[in-house]
Amino acid sequence: MLKRLLYLFLGVLFGVTEATVAQVSAKHNLVFDKLPTRWDEALPLGNGFIGELIWQKGNNLRFSLDHAELWDLRPMEGMKKPEFTYAWVQEQIKKNNYAAVQQYGDVPYEREPAPSKIPGAALEIESQTWGEVSSARVDIQKATAEVNWANGAKLTSFVHASALLGYFRVEGVKDFKISLLAPKYEGEVDKTAGGSVAGDDLARLGYQQGKVLQQGNAYTYRQKGWGGFEYEVSVRWKPLGADVWEGVWAISVHYPNKPKPAASTLTAKVVPFEKAALTHLSWWKNFWAKSSIELPDAVLEKQYYLEQYKFGSTARRGAPPISLQAVWTADNGRLPPWKGDFHHDLNTQLSYWPGYTANHLEETLGYLDHLDQNRPAYREYTKWFYQSEGINVPGVTTLTGVPMGGWIQYSFSPTVSSWLAQHYYLQWRYSMDRDFLQKRAYPWFKEVATFLEKNTFLNAQGQRQLPISSSPEINDNRVTAWFSENTNYDLSLMRFTFSKAAELAAELKLTQEAAHWQKIFGQFAPYALSENAELKFAPSLPYNQSHRHFSHVMAIHPLGEIRWENGENDQAIIKNSLALLEKIGPDWWCGYSYAWLGSLKARAKDGTGAAKTLRTFATAFCLPNSFHANGDQTKSGLSKFTYRPFTLEGNFAFAAGIQEMLLQSYAGFIEVFPAIPADWKDVSFKELRAEGAVLVSGKRTGGLVDEVILKSEKGGIARLKLPFKTHFVKEKKGAVLEKMEKEFVEVSFEKGGVIVFKNGYE
After folding, report:
1. Which helix (H) or strand (E) holds 647?
2. Which residues contact 592 (CB under 8 A, 6 or more apart)?
3. Quick one: 187 exposed, middle or buried, by C-beta within 10 A (0-12, 13-18, 19+)?
């Protein structure tokens, strides 16, 4: 009775129902017995556009405020020179003059403080007299932070899910003192640390310090940046009775000729706290309703839900895509690690892996919207550096898609746009949106394939190759990082591009184009293998060194060119390549390496191995607030990297690894529980999305799969690998069983059709 009354109360106040709570519960929350005292361990809130981190700095309660569009967009000084082209780089390699290339490509990235993501501001509330913190948590179902103090003081805060506003309420406090603090953009430069990992001092940007102005119960801070850019931070608060205070904050970003409402305008027209909470929680209720999982491993289940929470906090249409730190830029007086930029040689790609299967296609579209929006910048870069038609994308870019430099083997790699093309392919396959296929997916593939055709040649053996090739980030930034033969990394991406370009052209009945792309696909050599059927880095370089980037096994995952389902030959390559990966060892792996390995293990149908490596990620490479910290935080030998720069891609790769254990559909059929440990007797998931726009639910009880539900969003044919010895169809609506085979069943669906298979227990 009390439980029902609780849900009734939550339903009235926040629009929460018992069914909603059943999917994500208090056991998944971030819970602390004291407030974190570091920004990178803080309580995270966000909505893709703005974010806040709540922590304790000295005696004060601190909110680190951020906006995803806060960027210093000055050109990278000394990089874009007319002679700096792909052809020129090849000439310098032949002359053994690679120092000149490093001066153009890598040196500016380390030398110059910008372009870079920049921090916003901070709020501090004097909390010294409130006593010790008794509890601090993020309720991830409500995307709300709650902090309690010994004297009865309480903070409740949320970043609104669909408005550019952050809200806070403080209760049990009579003397309320709040300050708005600006980042230190001016002053003597701290030279004790720097570089791309530690981050340069903010004063190196050369800004004239903006002013914080107070007018009554409101602060406004305006900061001018480079090239006419400026931003405004506004906070307003008011008392509600003797000891309750409510406030709201906003950040507005202003680039020349791109007018937007000022932050002070946004905070002046704000709706009340409780009314805002209703619409905020309505968005999150819908988000959590999209899919759910239940695992017997509490650590993995909680980490998975925390990753889903972070995905919901950082991915939105209309907002920039997920960068290295997204809406949680470092609040330490420095620029963020690696300038907080968009790394397209792994980081952005991994960040969107879990969106498709988790049934969050609206959020994944934000990534592709950004790529389409920046096409003019990508084409300009392609014409400048490659002197070519078609499209390629810089491996390291600003908010507007402009190259930032770095190790050019990867930051100027010729196959970056190929890896990005996979996300267009996945969006099409998981949505079956033909309009998206025709207007966005195939046009991207066509431009990428055009670029690659023009920048490859047929060698003496009649095989197509790049003039110089690389494999992130093997041999770092040395001249030996370039190969005169295709690396398996570049090869897998080029094979994928032309194979899928042919597939999509055929889907659109573009027969001649499909035949052309298929012809080029047939010109590529097989993958470079050792005598023991292990994938190499390149024909001349075996896998012989521990490395954080599993670039040589891209063909296994994520591209799925080498598949367990293809039979013994591919299975041998997968098993032997992963065995060698582990034999060489994890000395120089990062957290995201372990997270990626989870998906690789799952593709090898190794559930025990997948669970083990994902648990290692969750317990050794994450900070207390679940942020991926790159290095081994236990310092127990899991990696020689023991540092802690926070980046998000490892978090989201972890979530994708869990999904690969529960559901796979990349091989042309749907397989439930393809890679779970034998001792996972009871495990289930609801409405995970498969390729073909099919929502799948599965339940395993007592070690046997009990039920599988398929719901076709768009209609069409779906193949299911049967997990039962015998089964019966419990119910079906708008679905016809077309074929029954020993291991597979084929179902023809009408739009919205549903079929439920039950275990026959024989």
Report:
1. none
2. 346, 350, 548, 628, 630, 647, 649, 650, 653
3. exposed
Q: How far is CA 665 from the centre of its chain?
A: 21
Nearest to 202 by CA among 321, 297, 118: 118
| Residue found under tokens 């601090």 | 136
Show the tokens assigned to 371. Answer: 């790529």
State residue 193's pLDDT score: 65
State the Cα–Cα distance between residues 331 and 65, nearest whole angstrom.
9
543-to-584, 603, 656 alpha-carbon distances in Å: 8, 20, 25
**Beta carbons of 724 and 711 less than 8 angstroms apart:** no
Residue 345: name the closest of 501, 561, 554 by CA: 554
Position 739: which residue type?
A: K
Running DSSP on this structure, what letter comes out for residue 145? E
Is 261:231 a contact under the CB 8 Å cutoff? no
Q: Where in the chain is the domain with CATH 2.70.98.50?
A: 26-73+116-294
Q: Is 133 helix (H, G, I), strand (E, B) or coil?
A: strand
Collapsing DSSP to helix, strand or coil, 528 comes out as coil
Residues 400, 229: contact at Cβ < 8 Å?
no
- Helix, strand or coil, per DSSP, at residue 69: coil
- Torsion sign across C-alpha atoms 82, 83, 84, 87: positive
pLDDT at 762: 54
The structure's pTM equals 0.96
Q: Tokens for 646?
A: 């926070």
CB-CB neighbours of 263 under 10 Å = 27
Angstrom distance (rounded) from CA 481 to CA 503: 33
Residue type at 203? A
The Cα 395–Cα 410 span in angstroms is 6
What's the number of CA atoms in the CB half-sphere (13 Å) around residue 572? 7
Amino acid at 445: F
The whole-angstrom distance between residue 275's C-alpha and the CA centroid of its chain comes to 31
Please name the residues in contact with 555: beta carbons below 8 A apart, sequence gap of 6 or more.
Answer: 488, 491, 492, 495, 527, 535, 561, 562
Query: 289 in helix, strand or coil?
Result: helix
Cα(705)–Cα(699) distance, rounded to whole angstroms?
6
For residues 44 and 157, give the distance between their C-alpha atoms in angstroms, rounded to a whole number: 10
Provide the token pair at 11.
């339903």
Yes or no: say if 550 and 600 are a contact pair by the CB < 8 Å rule.
Answer: yes
As separate numbers, helices (DSSP H) first and strands (DSSP E) second, the chain gives 22, 29
Sign of CA dihedral 435, 437, 438, 443: positive
Comma-separated ranges of CATH 2.60.40 domains in the chain: 683-759
DSSP letter, residue 692: T
Cα–Cα dist 603/673, whole Å: 11
Torsion angle (degrees, nearest 10) of CA 350, 448, 395, 666: 10
Residues (pLDDT < 50) of the chain are 1-22
Helices (H), 553-704: 568-584, 591-603, 607-620, 649-662
Which pLDDT does position 20 carry in this prediction?
35
Residue showing tokens 């540092």: 643
Query: Of the CATH numbers 2.70.70.10, 3.40.50.2000, 1.10.10.60, 2.70.98.50, which one belongs to the domain with range 26-73+116-294?
Result: 2.70.98.50
First and final CA of the chain: distance in angstroms?
41
- Please tell me what DSSP assigns to residue 321: P
Q: Which CATH architecture has domain 683-759?
A: Sandwich (2.60)
> What is the DSSP track for 99-113?
HHHHHHHTHHHHH--
Q: Are strands 166-171 and 154-159 parallel, antiparallel or unpaired?
A: antiparallel
**What amino acid is encoded at 511 in this protein?**
T
Burial class (CB in 10 A: 0-12, 13-18, 19+), 570: middle
